[in-house]
Protein: Cytochrome P450
Amino acid sequence: MTDTIPVDDVDLFSDEARIDPYPIYERLREAGPVVRLTRQDLYALTRYADVRAALMDWPTFSSAKGVFVDPGVNASLEGITLCSDPPEHTMLRSVLGRPLRPELSREMAPRIEAAADHIVGELVGRGRFDAATELAEHLPMTVVSDLVGLGEGHRGKMLEWAAAIWDVQGPANERFTAAMPLVEEFLGFAAEEAVPGKIVPDGWADQLYQAADRGELPRDKCPALMLDYVTPSLDTTILATTSAIALFAQHPEQWHRLREDRSLIPHAVNECLRIESPVPQFSRVLTEDHTIDGVALPAGSRVALLYGAANRDPRKYPDPDRFDITRRPSDQLAFGRGEHVCIGMNLARLEMGTLLDRLADVVERFEVVSSRPLLNNGLRGLESLEVIVHRSPAPASS
Ligand code: HEM
Structure:
């Protein structure tokens, strides 16, 4: 039965595909529910209903053999939270997610609001800035990196390490090879330096060791679990925020709408993530023979879940390439779904929503001067977005 599956030799990790994957996603989505990608020896799911169903069915679509592409990386990262199944996953996630519970994320709000006020005031006052490196990086690089708590001296390094770790989530291409030394440096740092006494007391990293001391997880797991905090907590949100600014610059009428009605902010965040998903894919391995939309796949198949394609599936979202903040796509898949749904999504939403709100107070319109795409194997978005902001006239004094 597998020989009836459409085959495609696209390289989803080529520069062209990273810059503009959407025509490729459309081709794959229309070719069939499952497409065999010969270059990376993967089966791709691109339709919303199939990706969502796979995410909700962890016993069949397992994360325990890794969720990336390269077999070596998948083998070496087995057992971190992202790459595990219940019951181990449940135990790890409960420890990892403790500082990120919704009520604690809400407690972070005043700090995030103060940092947002500061950066928006400064940049909008200047009138022209890089929305990626100066605006979007600010909250993750100040508030979030503080909370992770690797120590002040490692703040800048966190971004470099994280980008490298994302790069090895793809196939063994040039980007992957170039990133490997930094990944090894991080693993060495996590084992030797990111240990109690050298990291911020009571930070998220330190809390992992505290949980180990209470017998809640094996102590030798702690260095690898740092990956679960360091990798996804910064670039994802930075890219999502940058994309949001780019989208509002291209669609001033949507910005106007958001400024008029701030209750649209949570929906705008979802719509930005739907249109430009910063994490385009992860994968799973089938634990048994399984039929997806009439297509039979054998146990052991690696199946890529293309969140970025599913989020633009016209079967789910009419006119899917249209950016519309009144669409209210709360079911978009940019944070995943099910057992592994993003543990940091409340924090990411809070960061993005607060920045948009503060910008809406003072910015009438964004104008893009230039932009540069990020070329990374695991992430998508812009690494630079130079903008000019047109300020709103000061409100008439009453
Ligand atoms: C816009 C920002 C973000 C996006 C788009 C994003 C995306 C994702 C996605 C797609 C997954 C699902 C993985 C899977 O299906 O296998 C995930 C999981 C995860 N995310 Fe995020 N993420 C974001 C922000 C964050 C932040 C701020 C943190 C930490 C503070 C974080 C920590 C994690 C962790 C630890 C997991 C693994 C959860 C598990 O395996 O149970 N993420 N994220």
About this structure: Residues 63, 67, 81-82, 93, 96, 100, 228, 232-233, 236-237, 240, 278-279, 282, 307, 334-336, 340, 342-344, 347-348 surround protoporphyrin IX containing FE (CB under 6 Å). The mean pLDDT is 94.
